[in-house]
Amino acid sequence: MKSYLNDEERKKYEGEYPEPEKDPEPGDGPESPKSSLDFEVPERCSLIEQLRISIVSPKQLIGLSQLKTGRFVLYVFFMGMILTLMLYVIPVAATLIHVGGLNDLFENQIPDFSVQQSVLKAEKPFTINLGTYEIVVDTESAEVDKEKLGNRELTFAIGSRKVQAVLTQNGLKQVLVEGRIDEFFPEGFDRKMLIRAIPGFYMALILGGLFMLVFHLAKYLLASLLYMLIANSIAKRTGLGLNTGNVFRLCFYAQTIGILLVNVNSATGGYLPGTIVSMVGIFITLHFIFKTFAPYSRYSTDE
User: Average pLDDT, stretch 269-276?
Assistant: First the structure.
């Protein structure tokens, strides 16, 4: 009996040919964009898992975008709480512990001041640092020169006649709120009244944290709308059937690394230029968006 090297050689010489391969069914095989749903995520995907996927697995952002609205809303607030904790709660708490609380700060570490005839007078300029916030009091002029302020995210600049809330983003300073001294402080307001108002001051700190939470959420949700202008046109050519809401959510998830990068830099003192870090964050977000849709873009069809 003739021996063969393998079964294929035997079939060749004995005239036995393999059956022809069947054509793949529609939707099967590697030529279908949905043949392997690598982007799928569990319906009850936890917040930590959503965070992990947003950082290390761009291909699953499509799956995250298809989660129920409630889970997306929870993730948005989860990110907002991370930023508020990192940029506000921890720094403010550390400052209050360092100075021995507001009682010791107001009684022993700030000079005397008073409001007389709608004009604030203080023995000397002073600054109260509260993490990413600060209160600057300088009564040598009617209003504090913004160019003399530091790079804290939010500064309450109090001059002899005017109070300003100044927001600093990437080195640019913008006045959010301003008004006369008598619109913020009653006649005769002084350090003793400030000490008696400590409970209200703690309430103001809480409101400040809520303001930061809302401000950051609004900023990054608005950024998601801008990214969506780019991503929506790409998504329409993939055949994945994503609607505008899905693309909007995907764009928010894609920002996760950029959000953390920018705000960690801010929380650690802004050692890297804010503009450069923001540009890097934008590049990473766009890279994630393009990388998410790349495996499916070749299946696009012209309408």
Answer: 80
